[in-house]
Give the backbone structure.
Amino acid sequence: MVLFGIGGLACYAFAVHYANTVYDGWLFDSVKSLTLVVERTDRGVTLDLPQSALRLFVWDVADTTYYRVVGTRSGFIAGRRDFPEAPQDSRKLGDYQGATLFDSFIDGEAVRVASLQLPQDQFGETVTVQVAETKNKRRKLAREVLASVLLPQVVLIGAAALMLWFGIRRGLAPLGSLAERLQAQDHRRLQPLSGDDVPLEVQPLTLALNDLLARLDSAQAAQRRFVADSAHQLRTPLTSLKLNMEQALQDAEGAGHPGLEEGVIPVLRECARAVDRVSRLSNQLLLLARAEPDAIATTPFERLDLAALARTVGAEWVPRALQRNIDISLVVAGEAVTVSGNPVLLSEALNNLLDNAIKYHPGGGRISIEVGAQPRPSVRVADDGPGIPPELREQVLKRFFRVDRSGREGSGLGLAIVQEIVRAHGGALMLGDGLDGRGLGALIVLP
Amino acid sequence: MRLLLVEDDVQIAESLGRALRRAGDVVDVYGTARDAEQALRAVDYAMVILDLGLPDRDGGALLRSMRAQDNHTPVLVLTARDEMNDRVRMLDLGADDYMVKPFELVELQARIRAVARRAIARTGGDIGVGGLRFDLAERRAYAGDVALELSPRELGVLELLLLRRGRVVSKAQLQEHLCDWDEALTDGAIELYVHRLRKKLEGTEVELRTVRGFGYLLQHPKA
């Protein structure tokens, strides 16, 4: 816009100059023609011009023309008496083939004046002929020139701006889609950006981004492998620890020594429980690492019957539930409920829900496993135990969050793992009320 | 029972061996597949407890060569791996059961007993719990010294429940156990046999429970 302004001003100056040059020539011609009719006699100077011709001379559609003829001896000879004098400042004077040109005012209107001094005649008189003209024509011409130059310029600049805008937009569009694809990335499963639809200029950027993503992904994978490996490596020593613990406890209990009952036995029991907790935690960590998307991606899903899976998994928990006097039941709506998934992980999800239901149940109640096919395949584990307050249901899905801090064995990972597994299958885990408006109802809905 | 424990981790081998011996079994412990194979040729074990991660050879390979040599000694596999593939592969190779480390000693002992019971059932012998005794050769059940009057189908139900006692037996499993290929029993028929059997078991120490949706479970409340 600034450039356009400067260009416009320059253009206007040029137009004014051009108009002045053209009309100054005309003005000079007028002065010159007047000088031709100056009659110089010994009686003085007269203007040899009929009134009709003079009217013609003065007449113009656009501008008013004034003239004056003065002589050094005769004084005022013809034309308008009140005529502007030439400025003293010679810089304001123009010159056109011997005529002096300058700007001035007549009756408050801007005029251009041409003044031509005739050579001294034999009578010793110097005659000066002056013509003044208002500037309408000049201004009009300047405006026309300006318009004829500026208008195409405006169109040109507009067109250029439009093209620039479209060009930049089109040029940056790949960056926009690149940003969208980056935004859409799952942080647990980073994938390289495809470079097919990216212009050549942006390709170094996508390459660098892909390199970064790849390094990030492998770092994440390494971290997950580390967790899985550590959990795995812990299993053998934990087994040994567990076996020895149980044996020591059995020995102490079998010894029938009254002192042991208050001394070492409670301590051993506490240790055995701690070992159980550690075993559980390492199992859960391993499972969590296995439920991560990149681990899931390596094991293809298979078609399986959710009802059969619930029956197999649930059956393993029946003895434990009965032991605690909990009435456990399985309800399957209809026949087979077919889903696509990883049987190990889905079994573990159900294992976790059942483990929680039994572990936190005070005993002497009910646990119900319900498998449904409509509207979507689902399995729900509901109990009439203590439940989880509605305001905490969101939080229990977070890793290592525990409602129950009474020291009952639990890793705080169970529901987080269920959530992870269900999400990996494209499903949802919802926590609600359990049976008879009490307890907890954990509902897994699969696609 | 004489057991063969094949486990390379010294700590586990020692503590597990000690626990099993305490329960009254005779246990030979070896740490490599080679030693285990030699022992298997020399002794007729009641059961093999086999760790998969052996230093010289994979436990699975040992199991495969055992079965290839027509050795049908029951095998219970122990492993730190618990991938589904491994589990399926082990059972395909002819393992009788499978436990993932770290396991509970009590659970392992229960599994050992279950595997042993099934092995006994294959050869014909006695299985029993809480005063209830099932003579597999005679195909008769006794409550104490009194013979129970059971129909062949009721005996079949009791047999399977005893073999898997403490665990749930589904109607489908009962049907499979009771029927030939071309026969079919309705769920209602199975419910009837179970109902009658439960009546006849009244007065014994065992309890036949119905678990809705799952099936039936025989338990000895005092055990």
In short: Chain B touches chain A through 30 residues (CB under 8 Å). The longest strand of chain B covers residues 2-6. Chain B has two domains: 2-123, 126-219. The helical segments of chain B are 10-22, 33-42, 59-68, 84-93, 105-123, 152-163, 171-178, 187-201.
